[in-house]
Write a structure and sequence with these properties.
The chain is mainly beta. Strands 2-8-7-5 form a 4-stranded mixed beta sheet, with no helix packed on it. It has a two-stranded antiparallel ribbon with strand order 1-4. The protein starts with 9 loop residues before the first strand and ends in a 6-residue tail after the last strand. It has a single domain, classed as Immunoglobulins (Immunoglobulin-like, Sandwich).
């Protein structure tokens, strides 16, 4: 008999964020995204964050992925909403 792990890990993303643009810029940088919570029925592998180093004005999507030691994976989205609140000259 061969036993295989076919169950993907569970993954809960950090909450969505709303931030403002950096002073004098049209993007937000240095956004603290938080960390996802992952668990698995067998050994866990690595968490992976796929996102830009800077976020433009508007709604941006961050995709978090976790893959267990047997190659099963799960993803979840996190939104980063960037608002431009700077006074216009």
């Amino acid at each position: 008999m061969v036993v295989r792990d076919t169950q993907p890990p569970t993954l809960t993303c950090p909450p969505d964020l709303t931030v403002t643009v950096d002073p004098g810029a049209c993007v937000a940088t240095g956004v603290a995204l938080g960390s996802p919570i992952a668990s698995d029925n067998c050994r866990r592998g690595d968490d992976e964050e796929r996102c830009a180093a800077q976020f433009p004005v508007g709604t941006n999507r961050v995709t978090w992925t976790v893959t267990d030691a047997n190659g099963n994976s799960a993803t979840c989205p996190q939104r980063v909403v960037v608002r431009d609140t700077q006074a216009q000259p």
